[in-house]
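User: I need a structural model of Peptidase S9 prolyl oligopeptidase catalytic domain-containing protein from Listeria fleischmannii 1991 for a docking pre-check later this week. Nothing fancy, just the predicted structure tokens so I can convert them on my end. Input:
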Amino acid sequence: MIQVIHERIKNIPVLHIVKEKHRDDKLKTVIFYHGFQSQKELYLHYGYLLAEKGFRVILPDAHFHGERKGDVSEEEQAMFFWDTVENNIEELENIVDNLVARSLASKEAIGVGGVSMGAITSLGILAKYKWVKVAVSLMGSAYYGHFARGLVEQALEMGLEFPFDVNSRIASLNPYDLSEQIEKIGNRPLFLWHGKKDNVVPFAYSEKLYQVLTENKMVNNVEFIIDERAKHKVSIEGIEACVSFFYRYM
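Assistant: Understood. Predicted structure tokens for Peptidase S9 prolyl oligopeptidase catalytic domain-containing protein:
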């Protein structure tokens, strides 16, 4: 039986998904991040399928989302998008250290993944943490600076006004911008899935990343799946391929 446990790790609300018979065992663990203006409960299918394969799975609520949304408006969620991504990245170590201290996980067997904003988070995590073993990006972008500038332009066209210096904020993303430090991927397994007709996070970002990795002969452990028809939604086949990738490489 698969258990879904609602708990708080370092004051972060999470869903903790695991086979009941292995609840107290040290297991390979996947931290899986939800998308923009979503919440952890809507990604339970990823957690269930991964738990069926024997993983411990943690689905956190991102800052300004789910149980942590509070009175934040949709406009404020958009305005502080990168704060949410950065917060996800910085909180990963707290989550993992807690699981390690409880003898539920090992830092040598941690995978990360996510959809859209969660995928962007996962790629930033690769730039920060050497110990993460496997990463999955479903409709993400490793090009933080370029994507951030595009989002700002869209926001300004919609009439949003930022309460901070936009250029300074974008520059502060550099430590997480994997596209500027591609060598940090090393030989770690990386799964990329993207719909070619994506109208939210452009397909070109995943295509460009794979091209750069190919040019640098870094694709031995990289899988790139292109869905020719998909927009900004992961297909069932994409979900299954994501789960299989974690199982294969962890």
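Before docking, keep this in mind: The beta strands are 2-9, 12-19, 29-33, 56-60, 110-115, 134-138, 190-195, 222-227.
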